[in-house]
Design goal:
- InterPro entries: Znf_C2H2_sf (IPR036236), Znf_C2H2_type (IPR013087).
- The chain contains 17 helices and 28 strands.
- It is an alpha+beta fold and about 450 residues long.
- The strands form 14 sheets. It has a two-stranded antiparallel sheet with strand order 1-2.
Length: about 450
Amino acid sequence: MVKIEVDNISQDENQEVLKQETDTLTVTDSGSLELKEEPEELETKEVKEEEHGSGPQPMVEKDAVRNKIPFQNIPETDHQGTYKAHRNENPFSCLTCGKCLSRKQSLDRHMMTHTAEKPFSCITCGKGFIQKYSLTCHMRTHTDEKPFSCLACGKSFIQKNILTRHIKTHTCEKPFSCLTCGKGFVQKNKLIHHMRSHTGEKPFSCVTCGKCFFQKHSLTIHIKTHTGEKPFSCLTCGKGFLQKRSWTFHMRSHSGEKHFSCLTCGKHFIESSCLRKHMRTHTGEKPFSCVSCGRDFTHKYSLNCHMRIHTGEKPFTCATCGKAFIQKRNLTGHMRTHTGEKPFSCLTCGKGFLQKRSWTFHMRSHSGEKHFSCTICGKDFNQNSCLNQHMRTHTGEKPFACITCGKGFTQRCSLNSHMRTHTGEKPFSCIICGKGFSHKCSLSNHMRTHN
């Protein structure tokens, strides 16, 4: 006789009972679960019947009923989620948001998302979790334990589901495809996020400034810009970061660790995304196009900045003089003109620079390094932007046009200087006599009159 208790048993114990008794279960045509007959027990019962007779029939019927009742009543016990999951039933509804779930314990865990209850806490950092499994995975970030390893490349992971996603990068399997553009994705949630780029849906809104986002994760990061919270700090220089990912990449700048190498030129990168962007400089791929003028860009960020030229948006404003900029890095560089700070210095000649980009280009003037060559005349350049400007001398292209008189220019800076002839703006002033000039070179020439 097999005795199974159902009442007053925990979920884990129920799962263990089901696991141990899997081989003794059958599913009838009516959908109920019953025990299989086990030959060993029947043989023992037959021996007892030969020794003692058939025995009182009521006791045999009672034993048979006790064998069947626990599993026939599984849908009424804590196992009903597993049973009803196969029948696509979700009988447990959340009274707050209406979400339906197949198991009561799943509903209990879901309710914690509304109550903000997190019963499982990390003893190291104090972070709370709704599920014990999440705490277990989190603890591995402190112990650096990564029990799941990829057989193809040897890379290890904290969770099995992360390993499963990683395996697909080797097999190139992308089972989730966009019906609009055909792009494939490894994960379903990535497809859902991508679909919003077609629909324009931004379901997550900031309660402080009203800004909307495609993903909840992006909203969470944005909230920290209001609170000033930067939970990830560099132990070397003390710099704080909003995201752990940014902190990880920053730490490599101290260690000099660069895992990702370009097979074409051998250049190394801290991030795989940086390598992918770099590869486009070799392939000439420009996957991001402006819907207004048709101009193509290598990076999505460059497209976003370019779109502001059409919209006139300049979201970054100088608190000192009120000048507005399209990009944050332009504002950062501009602020140094007020403070006089030049944080990037040449180790060879000692010249200081406002921006790292300018310093990088200057360093090439000492090394004579010129990576970018014109395919028409063979002239070499130390900057890709200089090559692009040079190419326009061959093509005659003048992409920067004055909206007032229509005159075209090969460079944006030339257009900006020209616009001052219409506006009368003279941003360059002499510190001795106060005279204003439209161009910096004019100010430099004027300063010589004082010297």
